[in-house]
Automatic annotation (TrEMBL), chain A:
Keywords: Membrane, Transmembrane, Transmembrane helix, Transport
Recorded family membership: Belongs to the binding-protein-dependent transport system permease family.
Transport among keywords: yes
One term under GO cellular component: plasma membrane
Record-given protein name: ABC transporter permease
Keyword Metal-binding belongs to the record: no
PROSITE patterns: ABC_TM1
Length: 335, 346
């Protein structure tokens, strides 16, 4: 247990340093993007028919909260705010803290991507085992080909294909937005049903695009383990098929857990195209809008959130690995 | 329960594996094992007949690729695809012909009747589970009700081999040395009370001291538990140390067999002679050891007709090109060679 605790402490310290570095880099990069959100708003107001004086006044009132002072001053303010989880205030939605905007968007991303990833992992791993065991038969070939094919199609092409098929040619599923506005938000059947219905296509897109990778990875992993001596040894000792199967599965799935943890870390940032296509108000769509609106604070916050998720996923993967693989555990003790 | 040694060979598989009688006899008859290759099915073991007398240790010596491991796997009907047993039978007392066994009956025979010990360098244990948990898996696979008894038996066996049983059962494979792993392998082969044990290269990749220890253990456990043991090795020193009877394999054929002392003391087959001459002596000039000319055949280059050894043979005659020499018995000794009349030296 102390080994785990020491490991965790080391990871957290390294993770914290990484977050600080990323926060610094993203702060300076974002601040150096050409364009000025206040000028952009000013021009928008003028285009809307406002007089230059009134527009200038409105912009000043609207963005009075914006940090002024030197870049260094702004940087220290920003980093100081980070300590209290204060990511600043959104530019495109004046007055709303970035953290609230991120939280609102994250819930539309996390759940569908999580469901899609876990679904594809489950199906892909199980079919990958069959693809390996039946690799000389037609079933094995078919599974491997399905894996390569789906692995090769870019995610956004898959998304558009699904939209064309299931929302246009055979319009049985909605492909626009997260929920029907007809329903009263809350815990009622209509609202929940509509949510689920709208989530089907994005979730299926995530699942299908990740499935190929799982099938291929699991297949090659199982084939490797099947050639290991201890599997033959177990058979020659007369072990039950079910037990031998568990030996194979547990050894073969080990490397895949690492990939799973890392892909879960990327789930916050990996859905940009898909959310755009399905008009799903998650982090990806928010990031696109943030870039369009020159919303510096929002961009920095989003990058920081994605970084944090990847770091946490790495830590989880490592700790998890050391609990399921005894060789990693004792490696630490010996060190 | 003891089956007389002279029990007639059972031709049909026994209905249910009978309780193991101590030290079963084994009769391998006309066994041919082929591997499917792009050049068709090629024999790795050809027309091998060998009898393991109950309670004896038999050694099979041969170079890499001579087919000795394939022969060992045949005893468990476990030749791996693309190989298969083409013809022949392997009669084991209490089991019948294992070539005819399949499915659950075959699975239960493995482990419970026949113990198989892997080469120490091979990882014969699941790296993710402790030895103890794998022991329990083994017990459950064979329907052992008294798992505590099984653990007790395993600890006794490990203790008998000079290990701390409790500690070993609580260890993973990577925490054990080569010699310890080999003892764990022997324990797993014996713990279900199998009385026929096959050891495939039991001392390869172990240091000299550990080799000597393992061989001592094999000899002692063999005697104490009343086993029939088959040792597969490329090391003549190993068989000289443990085996009562020795069989020499070359190109998938058994070329000579007989009591170990006699075969090593007065080898008859030119291959056996060449092998023994090739061993460097501890004392004396290293040049006295003479290597066999040529190289051993592979699955693809082994001659389809005639003697498998003729390419490297000093005593080669015309008949060797066309006729495969029959294995002729002379008392306890069997030699397959045209040039060496077995009677001539007897």
């Amino acid at each position: 247990m102390t080994v785990i605790a020491r490991r965790l402490a080391g990871h957290l310290a390294r993770g914290l340093v990484m977050i600080l570095v990323v926060a610094t880099i993203s702060f300076f990069i974002v601040n150096n993007i050409p364009g000025d959100p206040m000028a952009a708003r000013y021009e928008k107001l003028i285009e809307g028919g406002m007089s230059p004086e009134a527009a200038a006044q409105a912009v000043k009132v609207l963005y009075g909260f914006q940090p002024t002072g030197s870049l260094w001053q702004q940087y220290t303010d920003y980093m100081g705010g980070l300590l209290h989880l204060d990511l600043g205030v959104s530019v495109s939605r004046p007055g709303t803290p970035v953290l609230d905007v991120l939280g609102e968007a994250a819930k539309w991303t996390v759940l569908p991507v999580l469901v899609g990833t876990l679904l594809s992992f489950l199906v892909g791993v199980i079919l990958g085992v069959f693809a390996a065991i039946r690799r000389t038969s037609k079933l094995g070939d078919a599974l491997a080909i399905s894996g390569s094919l789906l692995h090769g199609i870019p995610q956004y092409v898959l998304a558009m294909l699904l939209v064309v098929i299931f929302a246009t040619l055979i319009p049985i599923l909605p492909a626009d937005g997260p929920v029907d506005i007809l329903f009263e938000p809350g815990f009622n059947a209509g609202y929940i049903g509509s949510l689920a219905e709208h989530a089907v296509l994005p979730v299926v897109t995530y699942a299908l695009s990740a499935y190929g990778g799982w099938v291929l990875a699991m297949k090659s992993s199982v084939v490797t383990v099947l050639g290991d001596d201890f599997i033959l040894a177990a058979e020659l000792r007369g072990m039950k098929r079910s037990i031998v199967f568990r030996y194979i599965a547990r050894n073969a799935i080990l490397p895949l857990f690492t990939i799973l943890a890392l892909s879960l870390g990327l789930l916050l940032g990996g859905a940009v195209f898909i959310e755009k296509i399905f008009n799903y108000p998650g982090l990806g769509l928010m990031l696109i809008n943030g870039v369009n609106d020159r919303d510096y604070a929002l961009m920095s916050g989003a990058f920081l959130l994605i970084t944090g998720a990847v770091i946490v996923a790495n830590i989880v993967a490592d700790l998890f690995y050391s609990t399921i693989d005894p060789r990693v555990r004792s490696g630490e003790e010996a060190a | 329960m003891a089956q007389p040694e002279t029990a007639p060979p059972q031709t049909a598989p026994a209905p249910v594996p009978a309780p193991v009688t101590p030290a079963p006899g084994v009769r391998i008859d006309g066994l041919t094992v082929v591997y499917k290759t792009t050049a068709g099915e090629l024999p790795a073991v050809r027309d091998v007949s060998l009898t393991l007398e109950p309670g004896t240790i038999t050694g099979i010596v041969g170079e890499s690729g001579s087919g000795k491991s394939t022969l060992a796997l045949s005893l468990l009907n476990a030749v791996q695809p693309p190989g298969r047993i083409a013809t022949g039978s392997v009669e084991i007392d209490g089991l019948g012909d294992v070539v005819g066994l399949a499915g659950e009956r075959l699975r239960k025979a493995r482990g419970a009747h026949i113990g198989y010990v892997f080469q120490a360098a091979q990882n014969s244990l699941n790296p993710l589970k402790t030895v103890g948990k794998q022991l329990l898996d083994l017990g459950r696979s064979h329907g052992v009700d008294d798992l505590r008894g099984l653990v007790r038996e395993a600890k006794e066996l490990l203790g008998r081999m000079g290990l701390d049983g409790a500690r070993v059962l609580d260890s993973h494979q990577h925490e054990l040395s080569g010699g310890m792993r080999q003892r764990v392998g022997i324990m797993l082969a014996l713990v279900l009370n199998a009385h026929l044990v096959v050891l495939d290269e039991p001392t390869t990749a172990l240091d000299m001291i550990t080799q000597a220890n393992i061989l001592k253990i094999v000899r002692e456990v063999h005697a104490e538990r009343g086993l029939t043991t088959l040792v597969i090795t490329h090391d003549i020193g190993v068989v000289a140390e443990v085996a009562d009877r020795l069989a020499v394999m070359y190109g998938g054929r058994l070329v000579e067999q007989g009591p170990t002392r006699e075969v090593l003391g007065a080898p008859r087959h030119p291959y056996t002679r060449g092998l023994i001459q090739a061993i460097p002596r501890l004392v004396g000039d290293i040049d006295e050891a003479r290597a066999l000319p040529g190289r051993p055949p592979t699955l693809a280059t082994v001659p389809k007709q005639g003697c498998v050894f003729r390419e490297r043979c000093a005593l080669r005659m015309d008949i060797c090109e066309t006729d495969d020499p029959a294995a002729l018995a002379d008392g306890p000794r069997i030699v397959a060679c045209h040039a060496v009349g077995v009677k001539e030296r007897a």
